[in-house]
Every structure is written in structure tokens, then in C-alpha cells.
Amino acid sequence: MREVLKPYVRTNSKPLTSPLVHQDKVWSAVFSPDGTRVVTASLDKTARIWDAARGKPLTSPMVHEEVGRAVFSPDGMRVVTAGSDGTARVWDAATGLPLTRPLEHQLGVRSIAFSPDGTRIVTASEDRTARVWDAATGLPLTSPLKHQVGVVSATFSPDGTRIVTASEDQTARVWDVPLDTGPLDKWSAVAERSPFVLTDQGVLMRRLPPRVQTHSD
């Protein structure tokens, strides 16, 4: 007779911390990349960052109109929130203070996501568009990615070169968003002038001076 494997169900699971309390409905709760913190988004017009082990708030509330979503950046240093006021906002995850100008849409923002390298943010809005922003300055990097009605979701591909959007117009769409190599080129130029060089083994060493040729060479 064939043995039927039954899933093990743990019956004594208990909350690990006291409740992470807001003053109105909580729409979103997400761990930081290292799992030590949680960010929550609430209709009480705040997002909050909590110690995941103790359930205690770590920063002052990040005030934003009816926050529906909040996520950490890939390095865990920033948080971006989406609000019904037509903006997304970028915050310092250590202090809860804003880092950039608001990322502005014409209607409520439904979805937010960082690029895999953390340099860009994509937002999806009820104004029928998704937009790509510089995560450091809050400035738009592309023209709006347009649908026929509201856009409910937008995310980057794993390599950061494409975005897929989902809309209430019964379509999802894939968009090309090439990486901006400008900042990389600038850093490469700085590295070339540096007196130090990083070896293949990850060791920082002083760069050897260029060899001067003599007539005997």
C-alpha cells in the first residue's frame, strides 16, 4: 500500500513580539533585506520602521498621506513609500527623515519598487502611468510609461534593464529601460586618477608609478 505523506503542521506558533501598532489599518509590512527590521505602511498617514526582534519603533513616524505601501532599498539604507496623495517618498531608514523631493504623479501611487542596484525607483499610479526615478535625487529618468487606465504594479527585471507593468486595462506591458552608464563612467575616471588600486584579491594597494623608459631600454 502506498504511503501518504502528510505535511507537518506546527500548532504552537506564537507571536514573537508585541503588536506593531498604528492608529488605522495597516496595508503593508515588509522585512529589511537583512531581516532585522520591519517597515509598515498605514492609513493613519504614517510608515514606521520597527526592530523585528523586539517590536519597538526605531525611528520617528514617516508622515505620508494614507500610505499604502513601503519597501526597503536593496542595501536596507532607505525606504520608499507610496501614498494616496499622488507621491512616492524616499526616506533615510536610520532616521526616518526624507532624502529627496517627492516623486510626483497626478493621482494616488499604487506600487513602488527599487531597481536591483538601488539606484532607481519605479512607481505605478492611478494616473495611468508608471515612472522611473533617480533614487538619489528624486528626478524622473524616463518619459511616463502609459497605460489606458490605472497602473497597479510595476517592477524591475533582475538585471534592471526592463520593467513590467500591470494595469486595470487588462494588459501587462514590458518596457526597455537601459542602464545609465554615466555615473559608472564618472567613477571609472575618478578611479583612474586614484593613487590606489583594488587587486583581484580585494586588497587595496598603492598604484605603482608608470615606468619611465630610458635610451638603454
Describe how the helices and strands are arranged:
Layout (H helix, E strand, L loop, with lengths): L25 E6 L5 E6 L3 E6 L10 E2 L3 E6 L5 E6 L3 E6 L10 E2 L4 E6 L5 E6 L3 E6 L10 E2 L4 E6 L5 E6 L4 E5 L5 H12 L2 E3 L5 E3 L11
Antiparallel strand pairs: 1-2, 2-3, 3-4, 5-6, 6-7, 7-8, 9-10, 10-11, 11-12, 13-14, 14-15, 16-17
Please provide a written account of the structure.
- The relative contact order is 0.09.
- Helices cover 6% and strands 38% of the residues.
- The longest helix is centred in the C-terminal third of the chain and has 12 residues, at 182-193.
- With 217 residues, the protein is mainly β.
- A 4-stranded antiparallel beta sheet has the order 1-2-3-4, with no helix packed on it. It has a 4-stranded antiparallel beta sheet with strand order 5-6-7-8, with no helix packed on it. Strands 9-10-11-12 form a 4-stranded antiparallel beta sheet, with no helix packed on it.
- It has 1 helix and 17 strands.
- Mean pLDDT is 85; it is low at 183-191.
- The protein has one domain (26-179): YVTN repeat-like/Quinoprotein amine dehydrogenase (Methylamine Dehydrogenase, Chain H, 7 Propeller).
Fraction of residues in H or I helices: under 10%
Mean pLDDT: 85
Question: How is the CATH topology named?
Answer: Methylamine Dehydrogenase, Chain H
Number of helices: 1
CATH class: Mainly Beta
CA-based gyration radius: 23 Å
CATH architecture: 7 Propeller
In CATH, the homologous superfamily goes by the name: YVTN repeat-like/Quinoprotein amine dehydrogenase
Order of helices and strands: EEEEEEEEEEEEEEEHEE
Q: Characterize the largest beta sheet: strand count, sense, and whether it forms a barrel.
A: 4 strands, antiparallel
Total domain modules = 1
Tally of extended strands?
17
Helix/strand-derived category reads: mainly beta
- State the separation between the terminal residues, measured CA to CA: 86 Å
Can you tell me the residue ranges where pLDDT is under 50 for at least 5 consecutive residues?
183-191
| Major β-sheet strand ordering | 1-2-3-4
Provide the β-strand percentage band: 35-45%
Shape: globular
Oligomerization? single chain
